[in-house]
């Protein structure tokens, strides 16, 4: 007959009390500028890190006075102070990955590159912030050149948007083919991997299979639509189109043959548009 109260038995002397396990957070350092409007820079990075369950830290490179309508002023942080911020974080908390944003001077670029080499950080995402969403130029030409020479070889991935990629290769990008060509040119300039962000290119829409997640380019404007089975999903368009596509599209890989269904609009979702620059 078994004792219903195992606690009444004395614990063997070999038992040890284990310390409680604490969750391991991925430590991500954002080296970027401060956006007073909260829509970009370290403010946006910290929100993203938190949403993904990471522990976010910052090294501020510049302070900007900006809102949804434009950039009013930029004040660069001295390179020595930038380096001190990075050292303070690296030497105490440690860093698993680095996300680099706006670097306003060539000195700042060199400090960041030296720190990455010195501390042996291998997971580096470089967002070469050069032009604000409002169209304002944020850095000088010499700083852009320093980015290419010093940081492209150290980055695991660079993520320029259309304007930034176009500025780097001295071309205007207005088609998906031009974006692909720009990515290849940027890779030839020393980047290991390139992601050209084209969310505001009106001619481009991406289709994603809801089942196997295969992605393929599309070419028409449409609203966000929800298929009822494994069909392609259209990425959101800035200008809503008052139309429902009569039929869905099959997966590019044909993961479920014959899966073409009716499209229907997604139900309305709460939105938040701060400031006066609507439709940014």
What is the structure about, briefly put?
This protein is 25% helix and 20% strand. The chain is built from six helices and eleven strands. It is of the alpha/beta class.
Could you please describe the fold and organization of this structure?
This protein is α/β, with parallel strands linked by helices and 280 residues long. The chain has helices at 41-51, 79-92, 106-119, 141-151, 162-169, 176-188; strands at residues 27-35, 55-67, 70-76, 97-100, 124-126, 157-158, 205-209, 215-218, 225-227, 232-234, 263-265. The protein is 25% helix and 20% strand. Helix 5 (162-169) crosses helix 6. Helix 3 links the parallel strand 4 and strand 5. It contains 6 helices and 11 strands. The strands form 3 sheets. The protein has a 6-stranded mixed sheet.
């Amino acid at each position: 007959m078994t004792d219903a109260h195992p606690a009444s038995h004395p614990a063997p002397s070999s038992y040890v009390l284990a310390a409680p396990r604490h969750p391991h957070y991925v430590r991500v350092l954002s080296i970027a500028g401060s956006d007073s409007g909260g829509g970009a820079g370290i403010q946006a990075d910290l929100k993203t890190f938190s949403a993904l369950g990471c522990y976010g830290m910052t090294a501020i490179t510049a302070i900007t006075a900006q809102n949804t309508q434009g950039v009013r002023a930029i004040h660069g942080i001295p390179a020595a102070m930038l380096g001190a911020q990075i050292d303070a974080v690296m030497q105490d908390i440690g860093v698993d990955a680095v996300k680099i944003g706006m670097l306003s001077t060539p000195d700042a670029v060199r400090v960041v590159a030296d720190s990455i080499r010195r501390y042996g950080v291998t997971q580096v995402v470089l967002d070469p912030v050069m032009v604000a969403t409002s169209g304002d130029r944020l850095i000088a030409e010499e700083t852009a050149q320093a980015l290419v020479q010093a940081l492209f070889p150290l980055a695991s991935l660079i993520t320029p948007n259309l304007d930034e990629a176009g500025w780097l290769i001295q071309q205007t990008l207005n088609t998906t083919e031009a974006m692909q060509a720009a990515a290849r040119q940027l890779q030839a300039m020393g980047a290991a991997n390139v992601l050209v962000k084209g969310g505001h290119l009106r001619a481009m829409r991406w289709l994603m299979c809801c089942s196997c997640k295969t992605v393929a380019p599309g070419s028409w404007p449409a609203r966000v639509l929800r298929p009822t089975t494994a069909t392609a999903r259209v990425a959101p368009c800035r200008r809503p189109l008052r139309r429902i596509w009569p039929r869905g599209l099959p997966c590019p890989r044909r993961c479920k043959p014959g899966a073409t269904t009716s499209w229907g609009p997604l139900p309305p979702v709460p939105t938040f548009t701060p400031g006066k620059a609507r439709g940014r």
